[in-house]
């Protein structure tokens, strides 16, 4: 996929510019930022300094100290806390659907939908002063680490974020459990973790998400399916081919089989919702024919995940 431009128009950006991601846990960030704390009974008072990092608000730089030491330092305040946002994208081959020359440019394409979601949530995080990392979860087909953006903060990092996402592709297979487990132990700072995936991983994802939760992450599972996966319009004797493993399965599909498929899909999603709910994680299923701005501005806000 060579390009995703344009991801958003100016109208959409204006709508999300003042939004922020919601966390239920109170956490004292290692670096304090621009997010207002939920703590009460304290005033907003100066607390300390830290080194300036790219993307910080220049209005927070103490220019008197800079004049003396020739090093930029940022003022920190007691009543402000820093949030680390981890956007985790399942980049396996099943996310590249539907396939075809023009498919990746269509609004309902799963990978494009996932990237637009990451771009929107990442933009909201950067605009809120949060510390953002975006990581792809991929199979171990190379010795190189999976592509990653960040950590970054500040709205000035929005364009690099969009460029990074526009260069990424979904390919191969991904062991979600293994990838999530590795990420949980490699990342230094727990925070809000948003996993965007179709969950088509034979080994499942529960063990990996359990590791994230055990290490203090707050988790949102965004379950993305294409319209053809949510309600397939197939009939007759067919041979289905797994796009990741190449495994073939002969099937005969009629109206009764499609009804059974829909029942099992609903039960599968109910199982995810129940599992996440029991562990304090948020589960959000979405079919990619849902208008993208509706997902961000309505569904996620209605669930209290964005405000």
Could you characterize what this model shows?
With 307 residues, the chain is α/β, with parallel strands linked by helices. The chain has two domains: 237 residues, von Willebrand factor, type A domain (Rossmann fold), CATH 3.40.50.410; 36 residues, no CATH class. The protein contains nine helices and twelve strands. The strands form four sheets. The protein has a six-stranded mixed β-sheet with strand order 7-6-5-8-9-12, sandwiched between helices. The protein has a two-stranded antiparallel ribbon with strand order 1-4. Strand 10 and strand 11 form a beta hairpin. Helix 3 packs antiparallel against helix 4 and helix 5 runs parallel beside helix 6. It is globular and about 75 Å long.
State the strand order across the main sheet.
7-6-5-8-9-12
Largest sheet: 6 strands, mixed
Count of alpha and pi helical runs: 9
Detail the poorly predicted runs.
1-5, 26-34, 36-43, 235-239
Helix-strand topology string: HEEHEEEHEEHHEHEHEEHEH
First-last Cα distance: 32 Å
CATH topology of the largest domain: Rossmann fold
The strand count comes to: 12
């Amino acid at each position: 996929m060579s390009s995703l431009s344009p991801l958003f128009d100016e109208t959409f950006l204006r709508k999300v510019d003042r939004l922020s991601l919601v966390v239920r846990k109170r956490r004292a960030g290692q670096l304090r930022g621009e997010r207002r704390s939920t703590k009460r009974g304290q005033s907003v008072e100066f607390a300390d300094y830290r080194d300036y990092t790219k993307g910080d608000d220049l209005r927070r730089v103490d220019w008197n100290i800079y004049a003396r030491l020739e090093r930029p330092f940022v003022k920190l305040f007691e009543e402000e806390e820093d949030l680390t946002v981890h956007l985790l994208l399942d980049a396996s081959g099943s996310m590249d659907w539907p396939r075809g020359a023009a498919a990746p440019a269509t609004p309902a394409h799963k990978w494009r939908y996932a990237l637009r979601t990451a771009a929107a949530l990442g933009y909201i995080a950067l605009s809120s002063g949060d510390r953002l990392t975006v990581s792809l979860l991929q199979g171990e087909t190379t010795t190189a680490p999976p592509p990653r953006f960040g950590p970054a903060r500040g709205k000035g990092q929005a364009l690099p974020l969009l460029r990074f996402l526009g260069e990424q592709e979904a390919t191969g297979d991904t062991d979600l459990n293994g990838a999530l487990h590795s990420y949980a132990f490699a990342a230094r700072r727990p925070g809000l973790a948003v996993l965007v995936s179709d969950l088509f991983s034979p080994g499942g994802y529960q063990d990996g998400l359990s590791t994230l939760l055990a290490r203090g992450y707050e988790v949102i599972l965004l379950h993305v399916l294409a319209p053809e996966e949510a309600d397939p319009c197939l009939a007759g004797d067919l041979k289905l081919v797994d796009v990741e493993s190449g495994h073939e399965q002969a099937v005969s599909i009629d109206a009764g089989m499609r009804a059974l498929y829909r029942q099992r899909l609903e039960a599968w999603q109910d199982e995810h919702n129940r599992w996440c709910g029991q562990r304090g994680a948020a589960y959000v299923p979405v079919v990619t024919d849902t208008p993208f701005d509706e997902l961000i501005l309505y569904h996620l806000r209605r669930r209290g995940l964005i405000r």
